[in-house]
């Protein structure tokens, strides 16, 4: 590292704080703070969506998987891209038209206010652990850059994200994510990828040096690919951090086309990471751990200045996911858990006073909690697996069922969340956190419970379904429906 590299990184970090201040000046309502006023156009929407889904796991972890398995190491990030494409093409327009702030509010709107609190707790746990795993990644990056102690690195990186997120909420995060998207694209796709391939001697030399399995599209194993799709592709469909970005779209078309562009970008990013990892395997065949591949190739293979930019790109990847998970965690904690426990809703609270201050306090509280947990937690992979298993096993069926099956009921949704979540927890305790069985059988149990209980209970009230259909169609609900339907309490 040279003075030029350090300067690039320090300027980048200072720029993030400056954008946080600028975002605060653009924030004048709850809608501005939580969903950027629902007015992002296609360019900013697609850039920020790609930024949040491609975090440290996709960058450092994606290169590590390429180092370990070759080109098939791209499958984890490919699964993320496929999930984002499915969300954008099939569901994003309807989700955007609901004009809610959280996934739990969508469930209340669909089922009549019967499952919001428990689903909010599950979603809060998922977003909290997602923010923690992103924050832990600062230790690796700041150790490479400054040689900082693990705790100091986590506190420094986490404090910067908490600061700009607290200042301006989603507007600050949107502005910083757009810059992070550009830095990530230049640093990883336009600089590190071609330099790594050239340093490794080109694709012909890489094929001659490595076993044939490194260039097989399924070298990582079919079961692993299937599990990635179940966890990450379906996780993209229902995560609060992803939905909250969908809510920022200006209209249906932006949500659909911008999200499709972001999903396509993810596929390219997946291949790039795997290729970089494969090149690192040629250059450094005896690394201690696959996840060291990214930092090693950046330190040894890149020229002055470029090294700083690529490390800034790694910081961009981690910060974008961390900030998105943090505001999602705080939004759920405040509006789906705390407000409900106090007998309030986002709509009734917003009718009497500005909620920006309350949401800002919750971001600060959740940010301090995330930093504290990150300091004492070491196993990132297990934490992320627990988060995604709980999310997908507990909430996938009630959410997709609510969007696709009109016979689904609130009782069925509650049963699905409970049975699926408990099955996942029990099997993780029995088979191990990293086993495949928890997500397989958790999803099956959740599906059976949702369908069986929905069919065995009274159909959802017609007034509730009427409000739901109108919102899905982008129409205003009738006055009668709004006063008689409990679903609108969480809207």
From TrEMBL:
Q: Which is a Pfam family this sequence falls into?
A: SSF
Xref: PROSITE patterns: NA_SOLUT_SYMP_3 (PS50283)
Membrane-spanning residues where? Answer: 6-24, 45-67, 73-96, 117-139, 151-174, 181-200, 220-239, 260-284, 309-333, 361-380, 386-405, 412-433, 439-457
Please give, as recorded in its UniProt entry, the membrane topology of this protein: Multi-pass membrane protein
Name the major location: membrane
List the subcellular locations: Membrane
Q: Which InterPro entries match?
A: Na/Glc_symporter_sf, Na/solute_symporter, Sodium:Solute_Symporter
Which CDD domains does this one have? Answer: SLC5sbd_u3 (cd11479)
Record carries keyword Transmembrane helix:
yes
Q: Per UniProt, which keywords does this protein have?
A: Membrane, Transmembrane, Transmembrane helix, Transport
Q: Would you identify the family this protein belongs to, as annotated?
A: Belongs to the sodium:solute symporter (SSF) (TC 2.A.21) family.
Per its record, how is this protein called by name? Sodium:solute symporter
**Origin organism lineage:** Bacteria, Bacillati, Actinomycetota, Actinomycetes, Kitasatosporales
């Amino acid at each position: 590292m040279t003075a030029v590299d350090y300067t690039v990184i320090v300027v980048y970090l200072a720029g993030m704080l400056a954008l946080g201040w600028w975002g605060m000046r653009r924030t004048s309502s709850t809608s501005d703070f939580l969903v950027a006023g629902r007015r992002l156009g296609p360019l900013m929407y697609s850039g920020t969506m790609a930024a949040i889904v491609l975090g440290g796991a996709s960058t450092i972890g994606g290169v590590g998987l390429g180092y370990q398995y070759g080109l098939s190491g791209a499958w984890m990030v490919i699964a993320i891209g496929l999930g984002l494409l499915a969300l954008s093409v099939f569901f994003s327009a309807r989700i955007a038209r609901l004009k809610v702030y959280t996934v739990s509010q969508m469930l209340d709107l669909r089922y009549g206010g019967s499952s919001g609190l428990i689903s909010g707790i599950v979603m809060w746990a998922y977003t909290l652990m997602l923010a923690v795993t992103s924050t832990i990644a600062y230790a690796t990056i700041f150790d490479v850059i400054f040689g900082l102690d693990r705790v100091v690195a986590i506190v420094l990186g986490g404090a910067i994200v908490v600061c700009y997120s607290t200042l301006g909420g989603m507007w600050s995060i949107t502005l910083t994510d757009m810059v992070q998207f550009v830095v990530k694209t230049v640093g990883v796709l336009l600089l590190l990828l071609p330099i790594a391939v050239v340093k490794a001697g080109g694709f012909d030399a890489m094929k001659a040096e490595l076993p044939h399995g490194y260039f097989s599209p399924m070298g990582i194993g079919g079961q692993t690919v299937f599990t990635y799709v179940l966890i990450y592709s379906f996780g993209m469909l229902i995560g609060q951090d992803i939905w909250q970005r969908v809510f920022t779209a200006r209209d249906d078309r932006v949500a659909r086309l911008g999200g499709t562009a972001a999903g396509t970008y993810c596929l390219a990013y997946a291949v790039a990471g795997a290729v970089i990892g494969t090149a690192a395997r040629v250059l450094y065949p005896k690394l201690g751990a696959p996840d060291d591949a990214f930092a090693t190739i950046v330190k040894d293979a890149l020229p002055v200045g470029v090294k700083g930019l690529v490390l800034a790109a790694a910081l961009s990847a981690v910060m974008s996911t961390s900030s998105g998970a943090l505001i999602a965690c705080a939004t759920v904690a405040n509006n789906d858990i705390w407000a409900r426990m106090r007998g309030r809703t986002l709509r009734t609270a917003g009718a009497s006073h500005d909620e920006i201050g309350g949401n800002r306090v919750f971001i600060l509280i959740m940010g301090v909690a995330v930093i504290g947990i990150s300091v004492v937690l070491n196993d990132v992979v297990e934490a992320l697996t627990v988060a995604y298993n709980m999310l997908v096993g507990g909430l996938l069926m009630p959410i997709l069922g609510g969007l696709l099956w009109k016979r689904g009921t609130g009782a069925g949704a509650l049963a699905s969340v409970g049975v699926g979540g408990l099955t996942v927890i029990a099997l993780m305790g029995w088979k191990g956190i990293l086993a495949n069985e928890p997500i397989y059988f958790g999803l099956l149990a959740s599906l059976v419970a949702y369908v069986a209980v929905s069919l065995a209970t009274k159909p959802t009230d017609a007034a509730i379904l009427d409000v739901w259909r109108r919102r899905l169609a982008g129409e205003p609900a009738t006055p009668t429906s709004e006063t008689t339907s409990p679903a609108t309490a969480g809207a």
